[in-house]
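User: Before I run my own analysis I want an independent prediction to cross-check against. Here's the chain; please return only the structure tokens and, at the end, one sentence I can use as a sanity check.
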Amino acid sequence: MGTGVELINGWILPVLAGPVVGSFLGVLIRRLPAGRDVVLTRSACEVCGHVLTPSELVPVLSYLRQRGRCAACGARIDPAHLWIELAALAVPIIAAWAVPGGPFLWLSCMLGWWLLALGWIDAVSFRLPDVLTLPLILAGLAEAAWAEPDSLLNRAVAAIVAFAVLWLIGYVYRRIRHREGLGLGDAKLLAAGGAWGGISMLPFAMLAAPVLTLLYAGTLWLRGIPVTATTKLPFGPFLAAAIWVGWLFQP
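Assistant: Structure tokens:
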């Protein structure tokens, strides 16, 4: 058996933390776009107002034990809570497979959870809040200053270039099509990708994200959902996924 330090630096604690982080992300994703308090307000049933007890807040297990129903009134609990917790659990599992243990594993999990929140919020509200994107840029630069000081300039330039490129694409699109195509939130999210991965990661993110978006549009079309040139599609989830994969697997 490994020592306590090996367990902390290994995959066990990040995996155990995944659903707990996912429970918080579920609250963040639902409340932040609506302008509701994220930290101080206790979780409650959205139908009857029943304040959840500690036993009803156990990630994943509470939902399964209650069969997706409120313990007080029997109302259906939005299954998004369960899916977010499972997605947050998948983050450390994937990260533990892709990167070595220790601080870098925890850092990769933190980035993955942060991007998960941003991508999910954009998927449900077509917004990428500044309160999440801007600190993510600063966190990437801080990580560079801490772990790889020689890369700080590269990452700062990458953040600026990334923002400028997507801003320019969005500007040209608005001038030609007279409607919004890419928002500033997308540009800020790609800037965060540059701050974390540097110049070398930008081509991958800028190629993978549109490809994933097109695959998503194709999936909608196969399901019989009309997809036209004016159909509004979230770009943030696919950009977030591309950034995280680029971070995990870059040299």
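Sanity check: Residues 15 and 92 are 5 Å apart (CA to CA).
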